[in-house]
Design brief:
globular; mainly alpha; 18 helices; two-stranded antiparallel sheet; four-stranded mixed β-sheet; single chain
Length: about 450
């Protein structure tokens, strides 16, 4: 087979004479035809051999037999097929597996031969050799790998990324050490400075009669054996509205306090032990001021003794709290579906947020001896002032402070101890005059709370 400018053509050896018997019986084999590829770099094909016989002079029968023998030995490749064509890339599909680069015809022949060998092995009882599922198909020996068949060369960074990261827990069986958080600086430890221009966020007030958020049924909280024992001891105001355990719960009054109040062992806001000390220390203060405690009538007035304030102090209605949504919300929490009382119960104004101070202790001291001593101080120190208050008839406070310094010290001490104002008032021996016809009056009554000195 020779390469010409027109392509490949057959070449035959020079025939011997026709009369030679040996040449008729023995034909020289055709030269081996090697699989040639198109010369690279524009090289010209080799010139035909000078010994070759021209095509017209060859024996026709010999040329035919030689051509048949050459075809049996090896097929003539198509030069167009010998050119390696790179297939176009396939269209991307969802979750597509990496494509296997195509191989040329010789590689296909190798795969077919391997398949035949595998079939023969199975017929002989041998296990077939597993074929790789992925990766490039190796090229046959003697042929270099095409660029699409070669594995990509990775640089050092890509190799490091593909290396598996060792798990420290799997190697040591212990958890990896955690980085300690940095300690906050002195500025970070300082409390945040409130914004003076920020508006206070406040939840909207509930509708009238609606309980505050997080509050269960108050009625269920006030039912129990202890309240059943003392609820009949609760008083009523002059409108006939009797207090209930629900009222006491809102006011912070417990069943034991109701019992102590009813027994006169302690007023509201005090324990029996506190009240005993309260009374005995008052007796000591009077003695220190040069008075005989037996000559002084001491009574406790106000809501701590009567559960309600006087008739001149009514409980504000909800409509009177317009502009104070917090007070209205507390009022609704307290009342619910109850009828409000007419008078102010103990600590009610403070619980509603309408007054900053809780209810006080009004201590009424009636003694002619105390009145005479106060009058002497008034004439000496306050000659231009009247001795008693023109409306309430007690000795003026500035005169009483100067006349009874130990009583004043006692008041300060117990006001601080109880967290409530202790307000002593000095009257004549017969007590305050009865002014009930013209207004509020604190004159003596049979149900007054006496403090025994």
């Amino acid at each position: 087979m020779e390469m010409t400018s027109e392509g490949y053509r057959e070449s035959t050896p020079e025939p011997k004479e026709i009369g030679d018997a040996d040449s008729q019986q023995e034909l020289s084999p055709a030269p081996e035809v090697s699989q040639a590829s198109e010369p690279a770099g524009g090289e010209q094909p080799a010139a035909p051999s000078p010994d070759a016989v021209p095509e017209g002079e060859q024996d026709e029968s010999a040329g035919q037999s030689v051509a048949e023998l050459s075809k049996e030995q090896s097929p003539v490749p198509d030069p167009d097929e010998s050119e390696q064509v790179t297939p176009a890339p396939a269209e991307p599909q969802e979750q597509a597996m990496p494509a296997i680069p195509p191989v040329d015809e010789p590689s296909a022949q190798v795969e077919e031969a391997d398949a035949q060998e595998q079939t023969s092995d199975e017929g002989m009882g041998q296990e077939p050799v597993p074929m790789p599922e992925e990766g490039p198909v190796p090229a046959p020996e003697g042929r270099p790998l095409a660029e699409s068949e070669q594995e990509p060369v990775l640089d050092s960074e890509e190799q490091a990324e593909r290396q598996p990261v060792p798990d420290p827990e799997a190697q040591t069986g212990q958890e990896p050490p955690t980085e300690s958080e940095p300690e906050p600086s002195a500025d970070e430890q300082k409390p945040p400075v409130p914004d003076p221009f920020a508006t206070e966020s406040r939840e909207p007030a509930p509708e009238p009669g609606e309980a505050l958020p997080g509050q269960d049924s108050l009625r269920e909280q006030f039912e129990g054996p202890r309240w059943d024992e003392v609820k009949d001891l609760l008083p009523a105001d002059d409108s006939g509205r009797q207090l209930t355990p629900r009222d006491c719960e809102f006011l912070g009054i417990e069943p034991d306090q109701v019992q102590n109040w009813s027994d006169r062992t302690a007023p509201l806001g005090m324990s029996p032990e506190q009240f005993n000390e309260f009374s005995s220390s008052l007796s000591d203060a009077l003695r220190s001021d040069g008075l005989d405690p037996a000559e002084v009538d001491v009574r406790l007035q106000g809501s701590s003794a009567r559960f309600f304030s006087g008739e001149h102090k009514s409980l504000p209605t909800r409509d009177e709290m317009v502009g104070n949504p917090e007070a209205q919300a507390r009022y609704d929490e307290w009342m619910g579906d109850q009828q409000p009382p007419l008078r102010r119960p103990f600590d009610s104004m403070n619980k509603l947020g309408l007054e900053s101070e809780p209810s006080d202790y009004d201590v009424q001291l009636s003694s002619d001896a105390m009145l005479q001593k106060a009058e002497a101080v008034q004439q000496e120190t306050f000659p231009d002032h009247s001795l008693t208050h023109p409306k309430y008839n007690f000795v003026r406070k500035e005169i009483a402070k100067r006349a009874f310094p130990n009583l004043t010290a006692w008041r300060k001490e117990w006001s601080g101890s109880l967290g409530r104002d202790v307000a002593p008032a000095v009257f004549a021996g017969g007590g305050p005059p009865d002014t009930s016809g013209t207004g509020p009056s604190s004159h003596f009554r049979d149900d007054d709370w006496h403090i025994r000195l």
